[in-house]
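Consortium newsletter contribution from the modelling node. Members have asked for a concrete example of what our holo predictions look like. Here is one, prepared for the S-adenosylmethionine complex that several groups have been discussing at recent meetings.
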Amino acid sequence: MDVHLVELADHPGATEPEPFAGPDHPMRRLTRATAFGGPWTDEDAARVQKIFDGLAPTWSADHVDPTKNAPIADALDRGGVPVDADWLEVGSGTGAGARIVAPSVGSLVCCDLSAEMLRHAPDLAPRVRADASTLPFSDRSFDVVLLVNMLLFPAEVDRVLRSEGAVVWVNTLGDQTPIHLPPSDVIDALPGVWTGMTAAAGTGFWLTARRAF
Ligand SMILES: C[S@@+](CC[C@H](N)C(=O)[O-])C[C@H]1O[C@@H](n2cnc3c(N)ncnc32)[C@H](O)[C@@H]1O
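And here is the predicted structure:
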């Protein structure tokens, strides 16, 4: 498919991530599989939930810092997404994304599969325990869906997003993020035709994508 993607200049201070998770990382394979229609079973959900329940107590200390936040903040600044609007963060974890966007956006709902990750998140927005493959929200209930280092379930993102809505995809370690897809693959995986804008920031990058009409 022809992917329409505009690359903006790097954010000041953008830098290459250290080697961390290459293409053979199991999370990388799972990320690609779920994005492109592979099965997501109850066993997958239980396994992923168990991993993140175990990581929750130390996650914020290891994953909330200005370098990792840079792509989220830069997407808000330069990504052309509606800010005074209804946002949903999927895979919100311990609130790395919420800490940045909650003070600026119109409304925010956070959801995650792991009750422990949610329990360790700050009380900045309603926190809903849910599997992103079957989100408990009505069709077209949000203007923006934010995913920071989170698996992409394209049909659900498309379903809950309003027609003029935007997807914000962030990988804080760029192509070394275990849950990684490059911007062109995110656009390709979403149902229908989308256009995107992307830039490097911190050690990662952001993509904002909108439906093409
Ligand atoms: C790599 S962590 C990222 C957390 C947070 N966004 C951050 O950047 O710190 C991935 C998060 O996605 C959640 N997650 C994984 N699969 C999920 C699913 N199917 N539905 C909802 N959340 C899921 C995990 O529980 C975990 O909190």
